[in-house]
Automatic annotation (TrEMBL):
PROSITE patterns tied to this protein: FAD_PCMH
Descriptive protein name: FAD-binding oxidoreductase
Keywords per UniProt: FAD, Flavoprotein
Cofactor(s) needed: FAD
Family membership: Belongs to the FAD-binding oxidoreductase/transferase type 4 family.
Annotated FAD-binding PCMH-type domain residues: 40-221
UniProt-listed GO biological process terms: respiratory electron transport chain
Length: 474
C-alpha cells in the first residue's frame, strides 16, 4: 500500500470530516498509534474522526479509491494489537469515538440501539436508567467502545449466564470496504431470512467492515445481588464449587471467576486500596456472584447453604460474603485489577485460552509445569472465567530478569501453553481475538477448509485488503 501522507489525500479527508475530524500533528496522533500493552507502535500519517455514518462511508470510499489501509479503532483496549496501524505510514486510523449517541432504549422490546463510539460503561448506565441490564461486563468497560466490543466478540464476566457479545446482537449497521452502508439495525428476535450477516462482522476485528451502530438485547435489572470471595486448596476444589452452584440454581449464577494465589499477591502488592477480606491467604481463589431480578429471591441463604457445606467438607478453606455495595465493589476490584497489577510487576506474556470447563484444572497444572520447565523462576498468574472455561494464563517475568530478554521468549512460552491447550481440546484465542499478535498461529489451529473459507469471505468482501490489514488472517 502507498504512503498516504500526501497533501492532496489529507485535504480530501479534511473536506469530509471537517477540522475537528482530522488529526495530523504527531502529538495528537500518538495515543492512537500504540496499543494498551505497548507491544506495537505504528506511524499513521493521520487519525480520522468521523461524526456520522455517512462520513465513515465517505472516508472509506476515499481510502478504497486511493488503496489506503484503514485501521478502525474504538477505545484501543485490544490485548492482541488489533487496533494498531502499520509502522510504514501506509494506513490511517479511523477512530469512532465521535459516533457516541444512544439512539433508542425500548424497555418493552428490551433493546438498546446505539452508535459504535459509545463506551460500554455509558451503555450500561443508559440501560440501567431505564430499569434494564446490558449484561456484557469486561474490565475495560470504562474505555472500550461498543464497536470494538462487538468487532472482537468480547466475552467478559457474565458469559456463563448471558453469552458473549455476539449473543446479545440483534442488528448492526456496517460500512463495507467499498463504502456502501449495510443498514441492518433490526430488533427482531426471529428473522430467518437468508444468511445471518451480522454474525460475519461480530468477531471479525474490523477486517470485513466497520460497525457504526448496533441493536443489543437487554435483560431485567437485578434486584438482588450477592458476591463472595472464597479461598480454596486446589483448582479441583474450584471446579467442585462451580458444580455445586450449578446444581443448586444455574439461573442465579451470574459470574464465577478464578484467581491464583500468585496473581492475588500481585494485586495486593501493586494496586493501592486493595485488601484481602479473608483471614488466611491461599493458592487459589474464586469470586462467585449470584443475581436475580426477583425481589425476595433468597440469594443470600442459597449462597450460605452452598458455601457452608463446602466449608464443612474442606472444598472451601475460607469465604467472605459482601455485606454492601461497597464490599461487592472491593471484591470485584481484586479480580478486575489483575491485568493492571501484572503490567506493573513487569513484562508479561498473555495467553487468552479456553478449554472445556471440566479440563480447567488440568490446564492450570500442565501449563504451569511446561512454563516452569522452560524458564525457572517465571511467575505464573492465571485468572479468569472458570465458569465458561476461559483462563487468562498469563506469565510475568522472573524477578530481576531483563524485560526484553523475557519477551524474546514469548513465542516459546505461548507454544508451550498452546500445546497443552490443544491436547485438552481448547482454543488459543478465547475472547481477546487474533489481532496482530497471533495470525501466525491460525494455520496450525484452523487450517484446511476452515481457514480457506475465512480467506474466501475476506476476498469477497475486501478484495483489495484495505480493512485492518495484517490482522487475523496470516
Amino acid at each position: 500500500m502507498p504512503h498516504v501522507a500526501t497533501e492532496r489525500f489529507l485535504t480530501e479527508l479534511a473536506a469530509i470530516v471537517g477540522p475537528r475530524g482530522l488529526l495530523t500533528d504527531p502529538t495528537d496522533i500518538a495515543p492512537y498509534a500504540e496499543d494498551w500493552r505497548r507491544l506495537y507502535r505504528g506511524h499513521p500519517p493521520a487519525v480520522v474522526r468521523p461524526a456520522t455514518t455517512q462520513e465513515v462511508a465517505e472516508v472509506v470510499r476515499a481510502c478504497a479509491a486511493a488503496g489506503v489501509g484503514i485501521v478502525p479503532q474504538g477505545g484501543n483496549t485490544s490485548m492482541v494489537g488489533g487496533a494498531v496501524p502499520a509502522e510504514d505510514g501506509s494506513e490511517i486510523v479511523l477512530a469512532l469515538a465521535r459516533l457516541n449517541r444512544i439512539l433508542e432504549i425500548d424497555p418493552v422490546d428490551m433493546t438498546l440501539t446505539l452508535q459504535a463510539g459509545v463506551t460500554l460503561k455509558a451503555a450500561q448506565e443508559a440501560a440501567a436508567a431505564k430499569g434494564c441490564l446490558l449484561p456484557l461486563s469486561i474490565a475495560s468497560e470504562g474505555t472500550a467502545q461498543i464497536g470494538g466490543v462487538l468487532a472482537t466478540n468480547a466475552g467478559g464476566n457474565n458469559t456463563i449466564r448471558y453469552g458473549n457479545a455476539r449473543d446479545l446482537v440483534l442488528g448492526l449497521e456496517v460500512v463495507l470496504p467499498d463504502g456502501e452502508v449495510w443498514e441492518g439495525l433490526r430488533r427482531l428476535r426471529k428473522d430467518n431470512t437468508g444468511y445471518c450477516l451480522r454474525q460475519l462482522f461480530v468477531g471479525a476485528e474490523g477486517t470485513l467492515g466497520i460497525i457504526t451502530a448496533a441493536v443489543l438485547k437487554l435483560a431485567p435489572l437485578p434486584r438482588e445481588v450477592e458476591v463472595a470471595l472464597c479461598a480454596l486448596p486446589s483448582a479441583e476444589a474450584a471446579l467442585d464449587l462451580f458444580s455445586r452452584f450449578q446444581a443448586q440454581d444455574p439461573a442465579a449464577l451470574q459470574a464465577f471467576e478464578y484467581m491464583s494465589g500468585s496473581g492475588m499477591d500481585l494485586v495486593l502488592a501493586h494496586i493501592p486500596g486493595s485488601a484481602l477480606p479473608l483471614v488466611t491467604p491461599a493458592d487459589h481463589y474464586v469470586l462467585v456472584e449470584l443475581a436475580s431480578p426477583r425481589v425476595g429471591a433468597g440469594l443470600r441463604p442459597a449462597l450460605e447453604e452452598v458455601l457452608g457445606a463446602a466449608l464443612e467438607e474442606g472444598v472451601v478453606l475460607d469465604a467472605a460474603i459482601a455485606a454492601s455495595g461497597a464490599q461487592r465493589a472491593a471484591i470485584w476490584k481484586l479480580r478486575e485489577e489483575h491485568s493492571e497489577a501484572q503490567k506493573r510487576a513487569g513484562a508479561s506474556v498473555k495467553n487468552d485460552v479456553s478449554v472445556p470447563v471440566s479440563r480447567v484444572p488440568a490446564l492450570l497444572h500442565r501449563a504451569a509445569e511446561a512454563c516452569e520447565a522452560l524458564l525457572p523462576g517465571i511467575r505464573i498468574v492465571p485468572f479468569g472465567h472458570l465458569g465458561d472455561g476461559n483462563i487468562h494464563f498469563n506469565l510475568v517475568q522472573p524477578e530481576g530478569m531483563d524485560p526484553a530478554a523475557f519477551l524474546a521468549r514469548d513465542q516459546d512460552l505461548m507454544a508451550a501453553v498452546g500445546a497443552v491447550v490443544r491436547d485438552l481440546g481448547g482454543s488459543f484465542s478465547a475472547e481477546h481475538g487474533v489481532g496482530r499478535l497471533k495470525p501466525a498461529m491460525l494455520p496450525g489451529w484452523r487450517g484446511g477448509a476452515e481457514l480457506e473459507t475465512m480467506r474466501r469471505i475476506k476476498q469477497a468482501l475486501d478484495p483489495h485488503g484495505i480493512m485492518n490489514p495484517g490482522k487475523v488472517l496470516p
